[in-house]
Amino acid sequence: MPRLTLLLLALLAGTAQAEPISLQRGVNTTLWLEWPSIGDMLVNPSHLETFPDVRRDVTPAMYASLLAQGFDFVRMPVDPGPLVAFGPGERQDQLLQGIRIAAATAVAAGLKVVVDLHPIPRGGDIGGVESIIGDKWPDYVTLVGRVAEVLNGFPADKVALELLNEPPFDCDAVYGGAPARWPAMQAAAHAAARAAAPDMTIVLTGACWSQANALAALDPALIPDDNVLWTFHSYEPFLFTHQGAGWTGPPAKHIWNLPYPPAAVTDEIAAEVAAAAIQHMIAETGAADVAAIEQAIADYRQLPETAVTQDVTRAAEWADQHGIPRSRIFLGEFGALHTAGDRRLPREWFHAFLADKRQAAEDAGMSWAVLGYVGGMGIAPEDDPERRLAPETCAALGLSCAP
Q1: Average pLDDT score over residue span 330-353
Q2: Are the CB atoms for 59 and 38 separated by under 8 Å?
Q3: Which of helix, strand or coil describes residue 314?
Q4: Please, what's the b/e burial string for 146-174 (b: 16 or more CB within 10 A of its CB; e: otherwise)?
Q5: Which of 398, 340, 333 is nearest to 369 (CA)?
Q6: Strand segments (E) across 208-357
Q7: Cβ neighbours of residue 39 under 8 Å, at least 6 residues apart?
Q8: Is the distance from CB of 288 to CB of 281 less than 8 angstroms?
Q9: For residue 111, is pLDDT > 90?
Q10: Residue (of 203, 191, 96, 82) closest to 153 by Cα position
Q11: Looking at the predicted structure, is the pLDDT value of residue 1 above 60?
């Protein structure tokens, strides 16, 4: 879409006068932990009666515990899939009210909330991210406006709306110079949200999985709205954060016990990790790409100390270049897998990574939200009814948790 058309579209939405919501330290809550199909969700009241699932997984006592431990907000992922699948009508209205109830519960506990519209891959199912960024995009833009309308009654300093989590496309535009689709799409979604909620903060991002480089490829002048936050996600160094992750590709999914930081990997450790990864890959696929495994580990060992902070630096440079206060830059996700099935990594590696990433964001003047609350990347124990953090986790996140 031509630049002039984008500017006109943004201007039609009106330039917000309210100040952006002030965020500091947050945590990502849960998102459809069972990942049922859209069809299962639509026919199973146990899922949709407590939509979004944060309503059945996070209690007011847990929110109170987060506040007491030093968090000031939660990033609340909401799967828009069933709302898209239902379309306008009574059932979609019911789910929209569920979003409002979920946000109100956190606000009542004293926390601020970023409602994150967070579709997941679902192949050809209507409501999966593939359909949302495809032929369902016009319907999705309408839905964004409806979500903004539902949230509009909250105080502007309590609730923000993130339009789309990690747009999974336009990497060829970010890295290869191809024509970009996402700027025009984001401008349309922003216009719908702003028309419905004139004073609410809107969270914007780059394409290509919300990478820092994708944020840096955006021209913020295309959306002339000061009441926005610009978000990016950072999982670098990727081989550490996604080792053992079943949802990623080889060789990372087969590698385990790779220490952080990269300088901690000795020749002996590298050989042991490679041997175990080779056996894991053979057991799963019947063969092993030995060269790829060994090269990945060697590349990891060669990473500079700045590898963990380079995304933060890139986002800060972009903000400075465009005159955007760094307080309006939001590190919306960072984390690392530490538990995969019955396998556990030493928690000190996890904590060292969290501390380095968190400190970099704070030093740059940015807010942050760690991913996630529970699970393989979780910071909180699931056997504690209030999910209070361990002292070591609190220290890594710069929190002053009471004993």
Answers
A1: 96
A2: no
A3: helix
A4: bbbbbbbebebebbbbbbbbbbbbbbebb
A5: 333
A6: 228-233, 329-333, 339-340, 343-344
A7: 125
A8: yes
A9: yes
A10: 96
A11: no
d(CA 30, CA 377): 11
Contact 41, 35 (CB under 8 A): no
User: Which tokens go with 67?
Assistant: 């506040």
Q: What is the pLDDT of residues 254-269, one digit of tens each?
A: 999 999 999 999 999 9
CATH number of 3-237+304-396, picked from 3.20.20.80, 3.40.720.10, 1.20.1070.10, 3.10.620.30? 3.20.20.80
Q: CA nearest 139: which of 181, 171, 185, 183?
A: 185
> Distance (Å, rounded) from C-alpha 337 to C-alpha 257?
11
Q: Which alpha helices (DSSP H) does 113-254 contain, by range?
A: 129-132, 137-151, 171-176, 182-196, 212-216, 238-241
The pLDDT value recorded for residue 89 is 95
For the cut 50, the answer to whether the pLDDT of residue 375 exceeds it is yes
Domain ranges of the chain: 3-237+304-396, 256-301
Please name which of 356, 366, 355 lies closest in space to residue 317, comparing C-alpha atoms: 366
The residue behind tokens 């910071």 is 379
Q: Which residues pair with 160 in a beta bridge?
A: 114, 201
Output the six-digit token pair for 331. Answer: 């590190």
Position 135 pLDDT exceeds 80: yes
Count the helix, strand and coil residues of the chain and give each as a percent rounded to the nearest 5: 50, 10, 40
